[in-house]
Write a structure and sequence with these properties.
This protein is an all-beta fold. The protein is 0% helix and 35% strand. The protein has a four-stranded antiparallel sheet with strand order 5-6-7-8, with no helix packed on it. The radius of gyration is 14 Å and the shape is globular.
Length: 136
């Protein structure tokens, strides 16, 4: 299936917050394997998808989001301190960032549908798909 992309939006200086999924926090080591895997699933009695992290071998699964919305398409920041994801907890798809302490920030907060967010390699920007044009 071919995907039609809307505008790609870059958010400079995406937040740098502290973090606690587990002691092996991280996303991708330079030239090495990932330290954590992030995924979404409807499990643990939740009707909607929620975000989880785990070790690359499948152990240490940990529930990260706990909300009434459906949370999907997560991506761990290069420093392993934050997860960006799509959620419909506000009624439409928005881009959220959650840090390891549990702090949550809605980055888009608009009437458009925003999704598929990914960190830049240096972790300073986020790119995502949107059905409206804007510069942030």
């Amino acid at each position: 299936m071919r995907r039609n992309w809307g505008a790609l939006i870059f958010i400079p200086g995406a937040i740098a917050l502290l973090a606690s999924w587990n002691s092996r926090a991280g996303a991708q080591q330079a030239g090495g394997p990932p330290q954590n895997v992030v995924f979404f699933s409807a499990r643990d009695g939740h009707f909607n998808n929620q975000i989880y992290v785990m070790n690359p071998d499948g152990t240490g699964q940990m529930h990260v989001t706990y909300d009434a919305g459906s949370d999907v398409d997560p991506n761990i920041s290069p420093n392993g301190q934050q997860i960006v994801f799509t959620s419909n907890q506000t009624g439409n798809n928005e881009i959220f960032v959650r840090d390891r302490s549990g702090a949550l920030r809605n980055l888009t907060n608009d009437p458009g549908n925003d999704e598929w967010a990914r960190w830049s390699p240096d972790g300073k920007q986020i790119v995502f798909d949107s059905n409206q044009w804007r510069r942030l």
